[in-house]
């Protein structure tokens, strides 16, 4: 398994406001890494830079040693960098099953012409997507709602669906943006179990959240505050760091 | 199933029992449905509003006319030339224009429609301008001259059936699912690896090819083309039939095409007021049929099954 991410000296400002002031951090191969920080710390900006939705003013993002800084969102996605969104982004008028089919978009190939003529290659691509969607349905217990339009699901299930879809893409690196927001306590518990299981199977995960309880499952945590990484390490060490206590925990 | 068989038999029998003028209208239904299908899947599956389809319809018609009457080529060559030119034109024009979205995109395609019409009028060395090009030969199929509405009816509807079949294939393919994903949530589609812009451009090209195909058929059917047939009003008809029929369904454009061709014909017996009545009918249909005529049909069939 691969999925090592290296963010080096990333800087970004909006209208003269320095949101990120030279951020560097790594996500090790096969790790479950957390990135926490209070609201306004620059987490979302950093996340968007990693996934390609924003171009940083300076600095680089590398996946498995290859610089992806100049790649578009879809190029990074095809390369195996998958992300979820703070507000879950399902395809509302597609069924749950079709949503899951889209997970393996990056792993399949066909063309418009092949699709029109239903050539063997195109049919094989569709079959592969269906099989992957079936597997994801089972794994994430979405079988009961598989034919429902995704937009009609409650928020918690939309989030689960988005995660399932991203996992179906067999990512090298899975980046989750505030995956626990909008979930109730039981659902958060479930999410934690699921993420730990995925990570044990070798999936590299970057977890961005302000929720200390959720991030506790991460083996390494980076703390972002006012556009800078102020501490890094396992939870216990980070929690004891005086700067973190002051800036983040307000103690 | 039984309903489908009945529909097929009725379709088969129409030229034998209906009057020549009705068969003529139904030929246009098929032509409009082919061109409108392109508009429909841009709208229903990619969320793109286009008012430029009249241009590609025109390119197809003029290609057929020019290639057969001026260059002396066989008819299929004219069809291919039209589709080729339309595809290239759509790719070149679509690439920058499809960066826009919403109203801006709609307005940009409207501008294309207007420019196209002006060029059809002005480039009279190619299009014959207002005089048009006449004497376009009738199509011949297996030694049979398609020189009557009755004969052309079968060809036009056969082509439509093939196009619908291809369309259904595409919608069920990986690309089809990606198109609908792109319409629903472009950001999420990109995050899963879909190149939104390239996909839109491809579908735009496909749509243009359909417009051109319909235009070439039109030219061979009426054997005379002039710029009057390729104005913005034609583009509006194509868009209208997509909206009216239900752009998200496969059968929608056919129902929409029936409405925009048969309705004016049926109302024309009422005299000058027919245009007004047609417009009123449209307003009523749009207000009361949010899913289009296809939605109405689905509901009617659903109720029948429940009963």
Rg over alpha carbons of chain A: 19 Å
Structural class, judged by helices and strands of chain A?
alpha/beta
What low-confidence regions of chain A span 5 or more consecutive residues with pLDDT below 50? none
- Overall pLDDT level of chain A: 92
**CATH class categorisation of chain B:** Mainly Alpha
User: Any idea what the radius of gyration of chain B is?
Assistant: 19 Å
Strand arrangement, largest sheet of chain B? Answer: 1-4
State the separation between the terminal residues of chain A, measured CA to CA.
40 Å
Overall spatial form of chain B: globular
In percent, how helical is the residue content of chain A?
A: 25-40%
Helix content, binned percent of chain B: over 70%
Model description:
The complex is a heterodimer of chains A (251) and B (307). Chain A has 251 residues and is an alpha/beta fold. Chain A is built from ten helices and ten strands. A six-stranded mixed β-sheet of chain A has the order 6-7-8-3-9-10, with helices on both faces. A four-stranded antiparallel β-sheet of chain A has the order 2-1-4-5, with helices on one face. In chain A, strand 4 (58-63) and strand 5 (66-67) form a beta hairpin. Chain A starts with a strand and ends with a helix. The model of chain A has no long low-confidence stretch (mean pLDDT 92). Chain B is built from 14 helices and four strands. In chain B, the strands form two sheets. A two-stranded antiparallel sheet of chain B has the order 1-4. In chain B, strands 2-3 form a two-stranded antiparallel sheet. In chain B, strand 2 (140-141) and strand 3 form a beta hairpin. The longest helix of chain B has 27 residues, at 20-46. Chain B is globular, with a radius of gyration of 19 Å. The interface between A and B is medium-sized, with 40 and 29 residues.
